[in-house]
Amino acid sequence: MAVFRHSTDVMFQHCDPAGIVFYPRYFEMINEVVERFFGEAVGWSFRQMHTVERVGIPMGRIATDFHAASRLGDQLDWTLTTGRIGGASLDVTVAATCDGQARLTAQGTLVLVDLDRMKSIRWPDERRATLETYKED
Length: 137
Ligand SMILES: CC(C)(COP(=O)(O)OP(=O)(O)OC[C@H]1O[C@@H](n2cnc3c(N)ncnc32)[C@H](O)[C@@H]1OP(=O)(O)O)[C@@H](O)C(=O)NCCC(=O)NCCSC(=O)c1cc(O)c2ccccc2c1O
Known about the structure:
This protein is α+β, with helices and mostly antiparallel strands. It has a single domain, classed as Thiol Ester Dehydrase, Chain A. The chain is built from 3 helices and 8 strands. The longest helix is centred in the N-terminal third of the chain and has 20 residues, at 23-42. Ligand LTTK3YTO is lined by residues 31, 34, 46, 56-61, 86-89, 109, 111, 113, 118-120. GO terms for molecular function: 1,4-dihydroxy-2-naphthoyl-CoA thioesterase activity.
C-alpha cells in the first residue's frame, strides 16, 4: 500500500489568540493535502480538473478527531490513504503528526462531480486504478 505524505509548518496565520491551531485552519490544511495528493500522486491537478475538465471533488462528509493541540512553528507531517472507492465516492483518511505525536485524524468522503450540473459522475478507470494503490490494507 502506498501512503501519500506532505508536510506543512504551522504559521502565525493558523493560530488563534490561545496560541493553538484554530480548527477551520486544519480543514484548509486538509484540503491542501487532498489537492496535493491529486496533483502529485494521481496526476490530476485541480487546475486541470476545474478549469479544463470542469469536474470537482467536494467533501460530502468529514469526521475529525483532534488528538493534541498544535502550536506556532510545529511541523505537521500529513498522510493520506484511500478507503472505499464507490461509483463516484472516495473515502479518504487524512492524518497529521508532529514529532511522532498524533495531532488529528480525519475521515472524509469526496464525491467526483460534474461542476456545471453539480451531479456526481463515475471515477474514470485510469484514476480509479491510481486511487486503488493508496488503499488502506
Ligand atoms: C456531492 C453531491 C453533488 C452528490 O449529490 P448527487 O445527487 O450528485 O450524488 P448521489 O447522491 O447520487 O451520490 C453519489 C455518490 O456520492 C455519495 N454521497 C453523496 N452525498 C454524500 C455525502 N453527503 N456524504 C457521503 N457520501 C455522499 C453517495 O453515497 C454515492 O456514493 P457511491 O459510492 O454510490 O458512488 C451533493 O451531495 C452535494 O452537492 N453536496 C454538497 C457538497 C458541498 O457543498 N460540500 C461542502 C464542503 S466541500 C467543499 O467546500 C469543496 C468544494 C470544492 O469545490 C472542492 C473542489 C475540489 C476539492 C475539494 C472541494 C471541496 O472540499
